[in-house]
Task: inverse folding
């Protein structure tokens, strides 16, 4: 879930946080917390290109729905 991903991120388990957040996105592609957890996890891993790609994915999901993404 998105919450699990966030807690894993806070614990410094970046790969696990990314995996849990991707599972949440499979259920709700516009889930903001899941997108941001992936983005922050990539930054924690110092993988700026992947973080930028995730930011772009979040923006694409944001605008694809015609309104704000799910919380």
Result:
């Amino acid at each position: 879930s998105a919450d699990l991903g966030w807690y894993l991120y806070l614990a410094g388990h970046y790969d696990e946080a990314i995996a849990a957040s991707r599972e949440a996105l499979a259920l709700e592609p516009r889930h903001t917390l899941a997108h941001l957890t992936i983005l922050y996890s990539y930054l924690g891993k110092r993988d700026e290109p992947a973080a930028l790609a995730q930011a772009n994915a979040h923006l694409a999901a944001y605008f694809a729905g015609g309104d704000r993404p799910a919380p």
Notes: The mean pLDDT is 90. Residues 48-64 form the longest helix (17 residues).
